[in-house]
Amino acid sequence: MFDKFKNAADQFKMMQKMMQDENFRAFMQHPKVQAIFRDPEFQEVVRSKDQAKIMNHPKMKTLTTDPEILQLMTKIKFQDLFG
To answer: From start to end of 1-83, where are the E strands?
Structure first.
C-alpha cells in the first residue's frame, strides 16, 4: 500500500528536478508539446504508463521527428537529471 505513495513521491521529486532544468522547461512549454499533452486521446495513453505505447503513439512520433522539437530535446542534459 505504501509503495504507491513512495512511487508517487519519487515521481514528484523527479518532476521537480526536471523542471529546474531550463532546457526541459523550454521543451515542456513549447506549444507543440503543450498541444499533445492537452489531447484527451494522448492523455489516456500516458495514464496507461506504458512507455512503448506512449512512444509509438502517432502524435508522439510526429513530435519526436519535428526538427524544432528535436533541437530542444538535444539541449536537455538527461544524464544530469537521471545520473
So the answer is: none
Phi then psi for residue 21, to 5 deg, are -85, 120
Q: Which residue from 82, 80, 79, 74 is spatially nearest to 26, judged by alpha carbons?
A: 74
For residue range 27-54, list pLDDT tens digits in order.
999 999 999 999 999 999 999 989 899 9
pLDDT tens sequence across 6-27? 677 777 787 788 888 898 899 9
| Residues 34 and 59: beta-carbon distance below 8 Å | no
* 3-class secondary structure, 58: helix
First and final CA of the chain: distance in angstroms? 28
d(CA 42, CA 62) in angstroms, rounded, equals 13
